[in-house]
Each structure stands twice: as C-alpha cells, then as structure tokens.
Amino acid sequence: MLNIENLNQFYGSSHTLRDVSFEVPAGACTALLGRNGVGKTTLLKCLMGVLPIKSGAVRFGGQDITRLSPFARAHLGIGYVPQGREIFPRLTVEENLRIGLAARGGKDEAAVREAIETFPVLGQMLRRRGGDLSGGQQQQLAIGRALVLRPKVLILDEPTEGIQPSIIKEIERVIKALSERGDMAILLVEQYFDFARELADQFVVLQRGEVVKTGSGDEMDAGTLRDYLVV
Question: Which domain holds residue 206?
C-alpha cells in the first residue's frame, strides 16, 4: 500500500534520513521502532509531505506521491495522527472530528458516527472543547479525526505517549481491530516495545536515520529489538 524507496532528507548540512526503504502492506500493522532522535517523526513528516525530501520516492498504491501536498495525500486516503495529537483546542469535539471530513468533501456523516462508535467517550463530549479533554481523550479524538477520513493508510506517531494505561489498552484494541479488517495499512511509530509487540506484524528499526533491521514479528528477536530502544 505504501512504499518508501531510498528516501534521503537533510536539515541544513545534517543528513537526517539515509536511503530509507521499506514497505507498509495492507491488512497489517508495521511498527517503526527507534530511540528518540533517530528520525522517526521526521520520516513521518516526509511521508505526509510536511517536510521535503532530498531524494528518493514515496509511492501510495503504486502512485508516486513524492511531490504531492499534504492535503492531496490526505485526499488519496492517508490518515495521520501526529505526535502530540495537535487537535484544535478551541473547537468542540464534534468540530474536530468534522475537520477530518475536509479532505473528503465534508459530506460523510456516517464516518463521523463510526468514529464516535469506535471511541464512545467522544460521543459523551461532543459539545466540549478539545482543549478541555484529558490527554488520553485528546489522543482518542486525534485518532477518531484521522478515521473520519476513511484512510487506506493510517500513520500513528507514538500514540501512547503520556497516556494512562486504561486508554492505552483501548487504543491497542482499536488498532488491532483496524488491522484485522484487512483493508488498511497501519504504520505505528513507537519507542515502547511491549505495546508494539502486541500489534505489529512486521518491524522496521531506525538508528541514526538508517534502517538497520526489518522483519516479521516471528523473525525478530525481542531482546535485540529492545537493545535498539534502550538509551
């Protein structure tokens, strides 16, 4: 569904991503692991078109989207849940969800209802401002907003960061259910191996901007993977 081919990116003279290549297949969850500062969030911003790349290609369903705008990528069906959630704090929960409709013409009311059914707590808070929600509720709202897009690829940047354990389990349940549907490719960025292990069908490990290890869950040694995450 999503192919990253020899992607290179620079911040000034700093070579932050080095010939990064891997695939994110449909019907599976791909976990992108690595310590803080190895380039995970930078890579996701490149995949969404928020940051330009120096060379390489990003393909979505076989189509080269390397030079497309973020809005055009969302319109094609790439949903993005950024690190830190980035909801609109002065908009209501319902208004935040409807922002997700913008890339689809704003006419899919069923998608809004389905997002609320996915995270029932949102239905109880539709008129509350996003900034008044707890961190865990905001994370559910951010994922719900991306799901309103009905994405073919869902990209999640550290969805467990700063979240209480009960909501982490709820997010885990939702990601697992989406993956098992079989029609969506999920790219999950995490630095907590135990959470990723419960969900991932395959792993990609970044170190200093390079892919240093890839493989299915069965092929990857848990101890080795943890070594790449320990500071």
Answer: 2-77+151-229
